[in-house]
Amino acid sequence: MFLFMANAHLANMLAFFKALSDESRLKIIGTLANSERSVEEIATLLDLKAPTVSHHLAKLKALDLLSMRTEGTTHLYRLNMEPLRALSKQMLAVEALAIEEDDTIHYEAWELKILTDFFEGERLKEIPASRKKREVVLRWLAEKFDREKRYSEKEINSIIGRHHPDFATLRRELIGGALMERKDGIYWRKEAQN
Amino acid sequence: MFLFMANAHLANMLAFFKALSDESRLKIIGTLANSERSVEEIATLLDLKAPTVSHHLAKLKALDLLSMRTEGTTHLYRLNMEPLRALSKQMLAVEALAIEEDDTIHYEAWELKILTDFFEGERLKEIPASRKKREVVLRWLAEKFDREKRYSEKEINSIIGRHHPDFATLRRELIGGALMERKDGIYWRKEAQN
DNA sequence: TTCTTAATTTGATATCTATCTAATTAGATA
DNA sequence: TATCTAATTAGATAGATATCAAATTAAGAA
User: Fold this and answer.
1) Range of the domain at A18
2) For residues A58 and A184, is the Cβ–Cβ distance under 8 A?
3) How distant is the Cα of B147 from the closest Cα of chain A, in angstroms?
4) CA–CA distances in Å: residue A124 to residues A5, A56, A88, B133
5) What residues form DSSP beta bridges with A123?
6) DSSP per-residue codes, A15-34
7) Integer Cα distance of A140 and A135 in angstroms
């Protein structure tokens, strides 16, 4: 119940491949290769409706493949090449995809004790004052987030809120404890670093 | 219209991304990273049924990502690294892909749409409110002026006036949009600066 | 031949998602 | 203020496909 989770590398690559495995999105990247463009412009070029393009842009942006600046009411998107370069490198590291039989988190006996002490089912009774104990609780919380997903602050608050009312403090601790990262109001789970 | 012409790069990359954008298939690649394996073996490792694995193997094999040798009734699959390497390189050419896809033609297509939308023959029906569209119309208007000539304001007004009554606004926009320049009551077309 | 075992193919189903229209938001303009 | 335009969000739908069970094929072995 406290366990499971997939290979981080795999989840990461999967997210990128999914983003790039759509003809419209590849074409969008094509149109943005040379110049920044507005939503409507892309829509006209690809013969799609604006909402469809918005949908795709959001997906690409969630992976940091695009960035956007606004000029009046028009949103101008441009391509970020760095993530593509990174992915290109990662692809050659196939061994990294090799399944690790035991990638699950091992909670040691005392950690389990902390969890059962501070939790009532899924509800966190109180935030531990001691740093060590708080870390255990935070790692448990971090497991509630999918590594491949990107979250808005609202989503983060909602998910944490299921376990404890003071989601603001816990959210900050997740960032401070380097379990999650944030950029431009988007949150995601940080890679495990062992 | 030209969009539907299969761009070789795009079609090629799309096929690969689609093949790799599935969790099970990535895991299969993972299991094959170090050793060749039979269908049943993979099925057990990934907790899938044999038909499902067959399905995935077929897709990967179609792209030459795998090869197979048979030994009795068992089929042993192994990974081909070369296509992966090639794809990894191609990814960096996403820019090239877009450049190859004739960008000017698309841009003209979009421009043409704007122009036919806003023009009735040579007459501009209305001045587009959107900046992007107005730019297209202004560039069209600027073409009506010879790069070598110098014009008086009266001449400018007359020429613009053939296309729209509000020549004053359009004249100002041509200057503001850096398509024309003025000094001492003399107007001339500005050099294109790409 | 008949049986057994591994793999594939077929067919059905459930999930996912690209796309659209309609509604909403937010800036800019009049 | 009200109005326009660009973009996003919400909701609905259609098409794609991952998965499985059942049927079929293929290659030994008895």
Assistant:
1) 10-92
2) no
3) 26
4) 21, 37, 41, 56
5) A120
6) HHHHHHS-HHHHHHHHHHTT
7) 9
User: Which tokens is A185 given?
Assistant: 């109001």
Residues B108 and B48 in one domain: no
Crossing angle for the helix pair A167-176 and A153-161, to the nearest 10 degrees: 110
User: CA-to-C1' distance for B39 and C7, Å?
Assistant: 8
Q: Is B130 exposed, middle or buried (0-12, 13-18, 19+ CB in 10 A)?
A: middle
| B71 and B9 belong to one structural domain | yes
Per-residue pLDDT of chain B (194 residues; tens, 9 = 90+): 233 334 778 888 999 999 999 999 999 999 998 889 999 989 988 999 999 999 999 999 999 999 999 988 889 999 999 888 888 888 877 665 553 444 444 445 567 777 777 777 677 888 888 777 888 888 888 888 877 778 888 888 878 887 887 888 889 888 887 888 888 888 888 776 54
Q: Decide: A32 and A66 in contact? Cβ < 8 Å.
A: yes
Q: Is A33 left (phi over 0), alpha (psi -120 to 50) or beta?
A: alpha
Q: Which of B94, B123, B146 is the last residue of a domain?
A: B94
Tell me if B98 and A18 make a contact (CB, 8 A cut-off).
no
| B76 and B109 together in one domain | no
User: What is the residue-wise DSSP string for A67-97?
Assistant: EEEEETTEEEEEE-HHHHHHHHHHHH-GGGG
- For residue A3, being part of any structural domain is answered with no
Please check whether strand D approaches the CB of B129 to within 7 Å.
yes
The percent of residues above 90 in pLDDT, for chain A, comes to 27
Query: For testing the chain B interface, which of A20, A41, A73, A76 should be mutated: the one with the most B CBs within 10 Å?
Result: A20
With respect to residue B194, please indicate whether it lies within any of the assigned structural domains.
no
**Which pair of structure tokens corresponds to residue B132?**
């992007």
A137 vs A49, A99, A157, B140, B192, CA distance in Å?
46, 27, 16, 64, 62
Looking at A92, A116, A139, the residue that finishes a domain is: A92
CA distance B92 to B160: 46
Residue B191 DSSP code: P
The length of chain A, given as a count of residues: 194
Among B residues 39-68, those touching chain A with beta carbons less than 8 Å apart: 45-46
Task: Give the residue on B whose Cα is nearest the Cα of A75.
Answer: B132
The residue that minimises its CA distance to C1' of C28 is A72
Asked if residue A39 keeps its beta carbon closer than 7 A to nucleic acid strand D, the reply is: yes
